[in-house]
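Re: the request from the purification team.
They wanted to know what the chain is likely to look like in 3D before they choose a buffer screen. I agreed to run a prediction and write the result into the notebook, where they can find it.
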Amino acid sequence: MAQFVRSCRVAAPRAALFAWHARPRVFARLTPPWERVRVVVDEGGIEDGARKVLRVGPLGLEWVARHEGYERDRRFVDVQERGPFRAWRHEHRFQDDGPDASILEDAIEYELPLGAVGALFGGALVRRKLARMFEHRHRVTVHDVELAHRAPAGTLAFDVRPRPGADARRTELVAAFLSGVGWDARVVSEHADRARGRLALHVLPHGVEADDGERSMACGVSDASDESLASIHRALLAFERARS
């Protein structure tokens, strides 16, 4: 089978890097904006037996992956059960790099359909797509894990709500980012009742707003870039400090 391996160094302990991968919604944050991917089923996180069912590409092809090989703070593996490849195995490996840094290594073994013909005509394309995808994934990983390590999230819980005109993907990315860096964040519909103990975080076309009935916070951002998302994180930390 063909192999693809990429690694990155993260200025945060191995346990923090692994924990980030295990948090809800992180998959959405890792998915590049140019890839058409819709999560249909997401059961069990990253532990053995967990499953993801995706719809990928313009035709919405089904991709079913099962998790195995789980060793906390060391590794987990996802294996294709059904999908566009003849075979696919992706091992995520976590190693120490001194007391306050770690290495993430993504090692993929895959086989294209149609055997030698598929490898001949599609091999180079798949390698380019994987290289571009993991450049994005590792940039996001380094940014979010290091940010969470430097400035840990607070204890507030947020219902992330899209306002009219807000992009649905940006709403999902805001929630995925906040969940990944340690906030309790989930997406709800605009008109959902407010749950007890949870604050509303409204995603607008050009920013986000939070309120607790007495105080409010506004952060003007127009996209879901790393810096824009980090600005939201810093604003929520300041909002929490102001409430205490």
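For the purification team: The domain at 2-150 is CATH 3.30.530.20 (Alpha-D-Glucose-1,6-Bisphosphate; Chain A, domain 4).
Please add any questions underneath this entry.
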